[in-house]
């Protein structure tokens, strides 16, 4: 999921350089959403981590 976030950030940067403001804003917002989903899942996995037996 983090890979998709990086992909959309790069897409937003490239679109911003070429002047496509709407596409850049859309890609940046998708990247933000994916990053926060990744962050929440990461924290949940840390909290419910596996215990050693």
Describe it:
This protein has 53 residues and is mainly alpha-helical. Helix content is 81%, strand content 0%. It contains two helices and no strands. The chain has helices at residues 2-17, 21-47. Helix 1 (2-17) packs antiparallel against helix 2. The two termini are 30 Å apart. The relative contact order is 0.16. The model has no long low-confidence stretch (mean pLDDT 86).
How many beta strands in the DSSP annotation? 0
- Main beta sheet: strand number and arrangement? none
Tell me the Rg in angstroms. 15 Å
Q: Distance N terminus to C terminus?
A: 30 Å
Taken from the alpha-carbon principal axes, the silhouette is: rod-shaped
Query: Helical segment tally?
Result: 2
The overall pLDDT average reads 86
Give the amount of beta strand, in percent: under 5%
- Based on helices, strands and strand pairing, what is the structural class? mainly alpha
State the assembly state of the protein chains. single chain
Spans of at least 5 consecutive residues with low confidence = none
Helix content: over 70%
SSE pattern: HH
Brief characterization of the structure:
This protein is mostly helical and 53 residues long. The chain is built from two helices and no strands.
């Amino acid at each position: 999921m983090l890979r998709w976030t990086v992909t959309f950030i790069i897409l937003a940067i490239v679109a911003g350089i070429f002047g496509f403001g709407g596409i850049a804003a859309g890609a940046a917002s998708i990247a933000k959403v994916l990053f926060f989903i990744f962050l929440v899942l990461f924290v949940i996995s840390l909290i419910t981590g596996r215990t050693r037996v």
